[in-house]
Amino acid sequence: MDAGFTAEQDDIRRTLRELLRKRCGPGEVRAAADGPAGHDPGLWEALAARLGLPGLALPERYGGAGCPATDLALACEEAGRFLAPTPLLATAALAAPLLLALGTEDQRAGLLPRIAAGELTAALAVPGAALATALALTGPNGGDWAGGGRAGGVQARHADGRWRLYGEVDQVLDGHSAGLLVVAAHTGGFARSRTLLFLVPGDAAGLVRVRQTTLDATRPQGRLQLREVEAELLGEERQRPEPGDQGGVLPVLAAVGDTAAAVLACEAVGAADRVLERTVEHVGRREQFGRPIGSFQAVKHRLADVYVQVQAARSAAYYAAWATARGERVGGLALAQALQALRTAAAEAVQLHGGIGFTWEHEAHLYFKRATGDELLFGPVHRLREHAARTARLFERREVTV
């Protein structure tokens, strides 16, 4: 692994940091998160037009930059530093890779250039409580997380040459505002149940979308109600699917989940580094007993422990981002390390800021909510680690021959 950055990566990181520093102060972040879309449309347009972030990891033939997922992860690290409220994660790390991997050539050619240009945002509609399972981050994703052919989730019915969806999905990242929804649904009834992905325009007839109240407002989520909504199957339809055949959907979801975990890990590292930086600045200014509290040994030790965790998480996140292009799946383990570092850094920030740090209005709580919200969606940490250990077969008993 080459730990150095290319000139292009350095340029992207530097330009993005300068832009976000001007556009994403705590006040601007709160105002954008509280808006109808949950993000700043002007900032999203700037990120798309000036830096091409939505298409950073898309092939050039579809209007993208043709960069590996590593570049997207590094860009998300900078976005995480400022908790930039944008649909980048839902669009570029979750929905677009599924379109690229499973879509027909007509679907890719019709949708991916619009995504790369920032004209179209997209969201993966999976029940929020099952998102980590669907992406194979906390366990195998072959279960009934999308409905299982029984009550709950979304069901798909094929009749008169058309697919129609019926059901409800909540906690969908950017689901209330995305222009395109990639909906996971079950079809085939109980005996021949299989999970498929469908494309639903945001303005489809019979689709009702409501924004939900969330702990972390910078990660807006929506509830979708589908009432006989006409949908387009993502990819080619198989004529005679065998029982249990998922049409290749589940393996692709697992692969996309691992890459998304690496991207999320870098984003969490950026947030942890920023909140640690702000805490160090505060303890250097705040005086107690005639001296800065940052000069007290106990405070130094606590911040040193946080620094070590953040640097260890950064190493793991960078390796995971680099390994995705080589087929290694270590994103979940890196995400666990990064989420724990962010939670620790945010908790220490709240405490070391003293009384003001315990008020909801202080920016430390934006990071604390991000850490908690991400664990609820993509964790928790102990389950991420447990699944990584089981995948590596660490818990299997091996016979030793003497």
Automatic annotation (TrEMBL):
Domain Acyl-CoA dehydrogenase/oxidase N-terminal: 6-119
Keywords noted in UniProt: FAD, Flavoprotein, Oxidoreductase
Cofactors demanded by this protein: FAD
Protein name, UniProt field: Acyl-CoA dehydrogenase
InterPro entries for this protein: Acyl-CoA_Oxase/DH_mid-dom_sf, AcylCo_DH-like_C, AcylCo_DH/oxidase_C, AcylCoA_DH/ox_N, AcylCoA_DH/ox_N_sf, AcylCoA_DH/oxidase_NM_dom_sf
GO MF terms held by the record: acyl-CoA dehydrogenase activity; flavin adenine dinucleotide binding
Similarity field: Belongs to the acyl-CoA dehydrogenase family.
The Acyl-CoA dehydrogenase/oxidase C-terminal domain, residue ranges: 262-390
Lineage: superkingdom: Bacteria
